[in-house]
Structure formats: structure tokens, C-alpha cells
Amino acid sequence: MTTETVAHELILARRMARLGTETAFEVLSRAKALERQGKSIVHLEIGEPDFDTPKNVVEAAVDALRGGWTHYGPSAGLPELREAIAGYVSRTRGVAVRPEEVVVVPGGKPIIFYAMLALVDEGDEVIYPNPGFPIYESMIRFAGSTPVPIPLREEREFAMDVDEMAGLITASTKLIILNSPQNPTGGVLARTDIEHVAAVIGDRNIMVLSDEIYSRLQFEGEPFSILSVPGMQERTIVLDGFSKTYAMTGWRIGYGVMRADLAAQVTRLATNCNSCTASFTQRAALAAFSGDQSPVDTMRAEFEQRSRAFCEGLNRIKGFSVHMPKGAFYVFANVTRTGWTSKKLADALLEEAGVAALSGTAFGSYGEGYLRFSVANSMANLTEALGRIDAWAEANL
Ligand SMILES: Cc1ncc(COP(=O)(O)O)c(C=O)c1O
Cβ distance 237 to 256 under 8 Å? Predict the structure, then answer.
């Protein structure tokens, strides 16, 4: 007897058509495929520190595993970690934060997902930076709301024009996303800009999602959070975490700080989705807070130095120009003088020069004319990349 199998068409939910992606992971897999064919690639596409997680954090995780921290924990996070985070955010942002205003999640990303699912409805508008972290627009659309981009321009060193943003606010604006230091531009919002944003919002019931995942990687001056502006605490969700600060991208741990009633709703989403964040990872995160902070300072200094050297090198290459970023570990180079579109240029650099970078358009339409290079790679590899790009530019431009 033969058994016949029927080929069924995959019929996805309509919402899947609205979901975007993060191109860095796609470029990484293309680059890996080229490497498998024997090509040499310098990886400047992915946004993660090339440093190891500090030793004390790794030791704390191993101890936790041996000590039996291998079970479910509360959905909002271990009470001792929520308390430590509340203490840290209170100290660094200068406002009183309580543990019940903290939700621990697997990475910073879920806070974007959960905040959007909890707050925005169809017809609501969300203002977000463009170029910006692509997950913002993806999640805005996925949640059924309307994305309203605020362009970030090089002539303002990629800080948003707050007056322009004010013109985008309507009666439907539900949420405004801020990100400083910024991915992909390395731009930073000055305290005056952030206070201006708060003044523009005034007493309207508009929430702010303040993505501060790079706050410990600001090169000059102290980072300033809109959470610190009087009157804004109940309308602010701070996204922060351990991925970038402590080189813990693969551990998957981050957190959101928000009013307790919203934290309870975000916790309900977490219960439905991830149950809890890994318990031993949370014990390790506690150690990250309480341990020696000098690895963070070392990383920041190193990223600043590499960014400077990479910018100087790029500025000597035909068709490229760039300003020194103010934080994070990205260099966002203007390539309009090459005469090539960003995507075509990024593809050519990957395939012909062996340098993986991201097209500025991976961060939104206002990223056209730019390429993002991650300097989370050794100085030797960055120098090699500069040599390859220079040789390619001399031959092709
Ligand atoms: C601006 C921004 N926010 C959030 C995240 C997410 O961080 P995590 O890896 O902790 O989810 C990233 C990661 O690249 C980022 O660049």
C-alpha cells in the first residue's frame, strides 16, 4: 500500500507580513556563507562587544548552576535582582525607582516587543528615530499601529530636531521612542534636547520608550535620561540591560523600568511568552552590578579609541566621510560621494572587498547614503578593513 502525502500551502497570519527584521543577522549569515567558500571576511556588521563577559559574572553563573538556580523564577524577575536594578537606576537617573517598577526580561529587545503590545492599538501613532534600530519600526507595524519617523540628520550630529518632532505629534500619538547613544549613528541626545522633548510633550498622555542600552558607552559627559525630568517618570519606560554594558549579548538578559501598573501588564505578557528569564543568568547579572566596574570603562575607552582611528582612516578613503560618534560602537559613514546606493555599496564591499558592513537603509529610509560599521572588532582587523575598502575604492570609484 502506498501512502500519499499532500503538500499543503503554508498560510500565515496576515500580521506576519507586517513584521520586519534586523538585517545584521542576514548579512552575518551571508558573510559566513562566503567564508565557507574560502573567502576572507572582516566582520563589521554585527553589533556586539568583542570582549569577554567579565570573569566574576561567569563565575557567578557557574556557581548559580551548581547551586541549583536551574528552576523557574517569578515572571518579573528575581526580587533581589529587581531590587538591585531599582537601586542602580535610582542612582544613575536621580529618581526614586521601586523594585515593582522593574521587569527583567531575556534581553533589551523584549521590552520593545512588550511595551508595544501593551500600549499601542491600531490607529495609534508611534514616533521613532530613522535611521534607527530596525526592531522599532518592525514592532510598531506588527502591533498594528502607524510608524511616524523622525529623521536624524548628519548636520545635527544625528540628534533629533525636537521642533520637527513637535510637528509630528497628533491627537493619535501614543508613544515616542528615544535612543541615546544611538544605533546606528552613535549620536547622543543632549540634556537640553531631552528636556525640550519633555516640554513639547507637556501634560499630554504620551508615553516615551527611552532605549538606554548604550548609556554606559557614552564617550563624553554623563548620559541624561528623560526619566529624570520632573513629571516624566509615570510616562517613561526605560529600556536597559546587560548585553552591551557587560558584553553579555548571548546571555539574554535586560530589563524595563516603568510605572508599577504597566510593569504588572508587561509581566503578564512575559508570563505568556517566556515565563521568566533564566534564573542562573539573573544571579550572574547581580554579580555584574556588584562587581568591579572597570571592564566597562575599559571597553568604553577602547571603543572610543577604535572609533576615532577608524573614522580617521575612512576620511582618507575616496568617496567616504564621517564624523566621530559620541557613543556606542558604531561608525555611520556618509558614502554619497561614491555615487553608489548604500545597499549596492554594502553588497560590493562584502563580495568584492571582503568587508561586512550594513547599508544605512537597514535602519530605515533616512539611512540612504550611509553605511554602518561596527568597531567591535580588533584594531588589527579594523586596519585590515580600511586597507581593503581603500583598495576597492581606488579600483572602482
Ligand atoms: C538600540 C538597541 N536597543 C536594543 C537592543 C537589544 O539589545 P539586546 O541584545 O539586549 O536584546 C539593541 C541591540 O543591538 C540595540 O542596538
Answer: yes
